Amino acid sequence: MDYIKIPMDIEKKSFEIIGEEMGPHDFNERQLQIIKRVIHTTADFDYKNIVYIREKAIDEALSILKKGTTIYTDTNMALSGINKRALKKLNCNAVCYVSNEEVAKIAMERGITRSMAAIEKAVEDGVEFFVFGNAPTALFRLKELILEGKSKAKFIIGAPIGFVGAAESKEEIEKLDLPMITVRGRKGGSSVAAAIVNALMYMIVER
Amino acid sequence: MDYIKIPMDIEKKSFEIIGEEMGPHDFNERQLQIIKRVIHTTADFDYKNIVYIREKAIDEALSILKKGTTIYTDTNMALSGINKRALKKLNCNAVCYVSNEEVAKIAMERGITRSMAAIEKAVEDGVEFFVFGNAPTALFRLKELILEGKSKAKFIIGAPIGFVGAAESKEEIEKLDLPMITVRGRKGGSSVAAAIVNALMYMIVER
């Protein structure tokens, strides 16, 4: 069978097709890198209309990444989708606490989601860079902790997916005056969240 | 803020909404569990039209899962999305070789994708249950190995996503007379592939 076998050729060709098919837009070059990578990850051109990139959000994200940071993700899937070589080159690391035993115990005792208990731990740890691909409850909880002045959050990717609370969680977080990238409405997900992190890292380092 | 904080309540409510919004269909109860879980994972009702479940594929998948098996996934993201508690209850395990050092070395030497080299190792290991969420090249390679009589594949989830080769890889694998579930066209992905595995496992075991 005849098929392209070189990974970088496949990605390059994919991005060309996406560029051809996505039609007219007002994105600048860096925004476009994010939008295209999300479409590449989902094969869904709807993301062209629902990814919201706040002014200066990319600058802030890159500035945090460049100084080396801990990225908190709400799911192990998002964590696993983040390019580890790029992360290492940036002297950054990524963590997720939902499978943490202590977190599971606290969630059980308090009748809250593990995602919520996990975000509390991340906030205690002083995390500045947050990535949400799944859990509306975690995003709601982060907003509460920010309003209480407890969080050091400086940049947020808000992309919870789903039918219960996801859209609302993103509307709520957008009310904060913080650099952020969100996916509006029901869509988003761990793959999308990881794709946004990767797009940002690839603006600074080669893979 | 007032929001649902109990994970199982959130999922139950989500599935109700999906059922209400998805409209008329001809799926039976087990097929519907797969379709709904995929929509739950993507917030994309298009999956109602593009998930292809071959006759007896569910029976075969459940029969393999019940005897305890190794599930091969083409990405660490798909691996990470598979419910580990359900897997353990079934006495099954899941593996992915794309980060395997030996596999990376072989891919580099031969100028092929790591996904292709990884599938060769899985085939050598005698894997029967294959899950593809990302790599068209791996699915093409598996078909070649099956035609050469080298693979013991008994059930395939074919859900590579993307713009180069993804749709074609699924058309090719469908030509084989094997129990399979595929996602037609460009869509699919690691989250979708993992959701299908989970839907199958939840037909047999509680989470």
TrEMBL record, chains A, B:
Gene3D superfamilies: Cobalamin biosynthesis CobH/CbiC, precorrin-8X methylmutase (3.40.50.10230)
Enzyme category, top tier: isomerase
EC assignment: 5.4.99.61
The Cobalamin biosynthesis precorrin-8X methylmutase CobH/CbiC domain, residue ranges: 9-203
Coiled coil: none
Keywords: Cobalamin biosynthesis, Isomerase
A GO molecular function held by the record: precorrin-8X methylmutase activity
Pathway: Cofactor biosynthesis; adenosylcobalamin biosynthesis
Sequence similarity: Belongs to the CobH/CbiC family.
Protein name according to UniProt: Precorrin-8X methylmutase
Organism: Clostridium ganghwense
